[in-house]
Design brief:
CATH class of the largest domain in chain B: Mainly Beta
Shape of chain B: rod-shaped
Number of helices of chain A: 10
Number of domains of chain B: 3
Structural class of chain A: mainly alpha
Shape of chain A: globular
Largest sheet of chain A: none
CATH topology of the largest domain in chain B: Immunoglobulin-like
CATH superfamily of the largest domain in chain A: RNA polymerase sigma factor, region 2, helix turn helix motif
CATH architecture of the largest domain in chain A: Orthogonal Bundle
Structural class of chain B: alpha+beta
Largest interface: A-B, 75 and 48 residues
CATH topology of the largest domain in chain A: Rna Polymerase Sigma Factor, Chain: A
Number of helices of chain B: 5
Radius of gyration of chain B: 72 Å
Strand order of the largest sheet of chain B: 5-4-7-8-1-2-3-6
CATH class of the largest domain in chain A: Mainly Alpha
Largest sheet of chain B: 8 strands, antiparallel
Number of strands of chain A: 0
Order of helices and strands of chain B: HHHHHEEEEEEEE
Oligomer: heterodimer
Chain lengths: 184, 339
């Protein structure tokens, strides 16, 4: 029987190494893929992963299940670390290069951890929904979400009007919302 | 109701793309708007799941080991207390250690109790939040229902008031029309009443006149058996002054006071007119029956009415007179007489 993420976090808060190890196995691939996509650098990604899981170990007691799900809490920690790293190094999130790399690789699959986190069926629906998004909408969302860029920075970077950027982010998220709405 | 602008703001806020000042404004407005809170929750979940579609890359195999070592080092560092040189033979040496051990045990117990209480508190907080949320929703629904009912009642009252106003207005109009019609009817009745009196008087006068006329008719009417005797019919023949070969006849109805003349072979006159005469014994001079002329064949026929009442006719005559006739016949110019 799969142990609930919330229970794992409670046990981690109690300094349960086994629970922490289990939590790592479940989230590592998902989070590493995310960090690597944002930083595009394996060593940096490894360092950020260490920081993220160090935070999980230290801050598990502050997790409130009434506020968010474990997945969302962990992803927030990860995003924050990624954005901090990008800003510290004066780098910008580069979606286009990542998209090109993605098209060449055939490494997209769902690891066991992701299936446990999101549910096998739901994970498939999410992937279809994200794939169905126009590239420019995904690009704008990712630049803000993982790159920590404001609407003005995205607008300047892509040389698109501010209203266009706002509309892309809004439309893209509203489409994704339809996919996750029933799961909330 | 969330419009497109708010949707865009919520989307940008969720992915962290709002400028700091706009993000602060948005966060200030968020607690007061439940609908917006729900939207933010859904959009945040939508943004988060996007990472599930990223190409999967397995982390380096040694990463887990490094992380485990790091947390172990962190725990060890935090919990390690450095030992120092001491006289283990002196029992007083152990007193502070005993106290420390007691304190440590107490701390462990308190920490365990605290963790348990935190868990309970988190659970209770969750329950309170759920109950509070349900209560809020219920209260909101009740408020909406009450507002809807109040609105409906207000609408009905408004409509009732409008209907009452309309009814009162129509009643006033009806009353006003009735009064006006009654006044008109009364005035018309009075007028007719006033007209009735002279009309009745006229009617009586007309009736009297009819009676009088009927009496007069009865007096002047002659029995049909005597009707012919009242007509004088005489033939006309030329005198010595008249044209030979001329002939004619004349008739006069004493009842209608009308006569008729028919002559032949009486030559037309260039200057002057023929004048017909009736001889009534009651008058000193003959009575004129009118002037006439003849056509190229010497013929004429005409009717006339006597200008004065004729009671009896003893003779007729025709004379030649000046144009338009004369008051009495010229003696030597009589051309035809009744025989």
């Amino acid at each position: 029987m799969t142990v609930d993420d919330t229970q794992l976090l409670r046990r981690i808060a109690e300094r349960d190494r086994q629970a922490f190890s289990q939590f790592y196995d479940r989230y590592a691939t998902l989070l590493y893929s995310t960090v690597l996509r944002a930083l595009n650098h394996r060593e940096d990604a490894g360092e950020v992963m260490q920081q993220v899981f160090g935070d999980i170990w230290r801050k598990a007691g502050s997790y409130d299940s009434a506020v968010s799900r474990p997945f969302n809490w962990v992803l927030t920690l990860t995003r924050q670390k990624v954005i901090d790293r990008l800003r510290a190094e004066g780098r910008r999130y580069s979606f286009v290069e990542e998209a090109a790399a993605e098209s060449k690789s055939d490494t997209r699959f769902f690891d066991r951890g992701s299936a446990e986190i999101l549910g096998q069926e739901h994970a498939g629906q999410i992937r279809k929904a994200v794939d169905a998004l126009p590239l420019e909408q995904r690009q704008a969302i990712e630049m803000a979400f993982l790159g920590g860029m404001t609407q003005n920075e995205i607008s300047a970077s892509l040389r698109q009007p501010l209203g266009t950027i706002k509309a892309r982010i809004r439309r893209g998220l509203l489409k994704l919302r339809e996919t996750v709405k029933d799961r909330l | 109701m969330i419009d497109e602008r708010k949707e865009a703001q919520a989307s940008l806020y969720v992915v962290g793309a709002l400028p700091p000042d706009e993000a602060r404004d948005f966060e200030r407005a968020l607690p007061a708007d439940l609908e917006l809170q729900l939207l933010v929750t859904e959009l945040r979940a939508a943004a988060d799941v996007m990472v599930a579609a990223f190409p999967r890359v397995a982390p380096p195999p040694d990463l887990k080991q490094r992380i485990m070592e790091e947390i172990d080092a962190g725990d060890t560092t935090g919990n390690t207390i450095p030992l120092r040189e001491a006289d283990f033979g002196n029992w007083l040496y152990w007193v502070p250690w005993a106290l420390a051990a007691c304190f440590a045990i107490l701390c462990v117990v308190l920490i365990g109790t605290g963790a348990s209480l935190r868990r309970q508190m988190a659970g209770l907080r969750q329950q309170i939040d759920q109950v509070s949320e349900a209560t809020n929703e219920s209260e909101q629904q009740q408020r909406q229902q009450v507002q809807t009912i109040i609105q409906q009642v207000t609408n009905y009252q408004q409509r009732a008031a409008d209907l009452q106003t309309q009814l009162a207005q129509r009643a006033q109009d009806y009353q006003r029309d009735t009064t006006r019609l009654y006044d008109q009817l009364k005035q018309a009745t009075n007028r007719l009443q006033f007209q009735r009196v002279p009309l009745l008087r006229q009617l009586e006068e007309q009736q009297d006149l009819i009676d009088e006329l009927q009496d007069a008719i009865s007096q002047v009417t002659v029995p049909s058996s005597d009707r012919f005797s009242q007509v004088r019919l005489l033939s006309l023949v030329p005198t010595t002054n008249g044209p030979a070969g001329s002939a004619g006849a004349a008739a006069f109805d004493l009842v209608s006071q009308q006569g008729s003349v028919d002559v032949q072979n009486l030559p037309p006159l260039a200057n002057g007119d023929y004048q017909f005469w009736l001889f009534d014994p009651r008058y000193i001079t003959p009575v004129s029956g009118g002037v006439f002329s003849t056509d190229a064949q010497g013929h004429t026929q005409y009717q006339f009415r006597s200008s004065v009442p004729i009671a009896a006719v003893v003779a007729f005559a025709i004379s030649i007179e000046r144009k338009g006739g004369a008051p009495t016949p010229t003696p030597n110019r009589v051309v035809m007489t009744s025989n």
